[in-house]
Amino acid sequence: MQVEEKGLTVETADKIGTFVKERGPPWELLSKFKQEGSQFLENKGSLVALKELEVLFKALGESKCIDKVIFDLSLARGLDYYTGVIFEAVFKGATQVGSIAAGGRYDNLIGMFGTKQVPAVGVSLGIERVFTIMEQLQKDCNQAIRATETQILVAVLVDDLSLAAKIVSELWSVRLKAEFMVNKRVMKHIERAKSSRIPWMVIVGERELNDGIVKLKDVEASKEEEIPRDRLVEELQRRLSGMSA
Prior knowledge:
Helix content: 25-40%
């Protein structure tokens, strides 16, 4: 049916069938197609394509990335507005999800929606596939996937928004990633830290305020200790620098 729709003879379709089996290193295949007797030298369109591919492969060589490229004649895109080279990007790793990006050259598409023709090259990214790969890489490294970059949850157990803002601003001033929450129920704070995988908590309630201290909690180890309020920033900097090292 496809052959009939395109107006191709069976003979032509069979020839195309032999071409699409070609796949390999760019320069190796290009050299083969330019050899004397090659059917690619018998057609004006294919001669132009070979010259354009030579320009592309030279540029890829100068960019030191041609070793990452495979020339594949079986590659096809489902849309018919492409007028030149088409490409797909795949991830070479244990997680196989198919292509993660694809696109190509189109000379006439923009002109269909405007007043003049604007040759262009476009690419689309499969963001869900990229996320799948990232998640698997994290699991392979035994690293927990965190929903936030927050390092410290300032848990204020008294109804004092200004106190929470003051403490968190001190942490922000030394570039520590912190957020605050005001709630009298300590378990609400702990649930928030665990669900978002925030590693440290600073807990401040009535007793801590009266005694001039704060509680520092290691969420994963479920350990906490009391430290002087005026040493909070210094202590968190020390512990978080140890984690990054």
